[in-house]
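Ops channel
N.P.: pipeline sanity check, posting one input/output pair.
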């Protein structure tokens, strides 16, 4: 492996850790936010969760994916192996869900939560956004997708 490819591989692995940190910490913050009895604590957990997506998950995903793509040729894989196709598809789906659904939904929730906190009670908009279970389900599926991606990178099964 050329020295430059080694550096790119290092950045790729660190980016994957960066991505995984945001995804798995987000699950912990979401669980703690559900257990918090006061509304201000729930809003704080929601804000932390949104920051984890915007600072860790999305940038980590972009960096890990782009560095991973740049390593395919130097490491001798190219685009021929099926594990590369599957990995690329999973990465694009996870990135798309994060950029186009999860992050915007969290931003709307944080705005509604902060407005509700200022008003002294949860608004109808916040309650409607908070009752939507899909973002939590997608976050858990995304975490599972990260595990599958790691398995594909390590095992290269097909």
């Amino acid at each position: 492996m050329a020295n430059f490819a080694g550096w790119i591989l290092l950045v790729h692995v660190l980016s994957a850790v960066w991505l995984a940190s945001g995804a798995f910490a987000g699950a912990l913050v979401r669980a703690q936010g559900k257990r918090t009895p006061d509304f201000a604590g729930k809003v704080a957990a929601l804000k932390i969760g949104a920051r984890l997506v915007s600072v860790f998950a999305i940038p980590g995903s972009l960096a890990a994916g782009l560095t991973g793509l740049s390593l395919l040729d130097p490491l001798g894989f190219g685009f021929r192996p099926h594990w590369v196709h599957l990995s690329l598809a999973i990465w694009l789906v996870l990135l798309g869900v994060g950029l186009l659904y999860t992050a915007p939904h969290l931003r709307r929730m944080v705005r509604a939560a902060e407005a509700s906190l200022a008003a002294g009670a949860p608004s109808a908009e916040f309650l409607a956004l908070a009752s939507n279970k899909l973002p939590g389900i997608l976050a858990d599926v995304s975490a599972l997708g990260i595990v599958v991606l790691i398995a594909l990178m390590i095992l290269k099964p097909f």
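N.P.: looks fine end to end. The chain has a mean pLDDT of 94.
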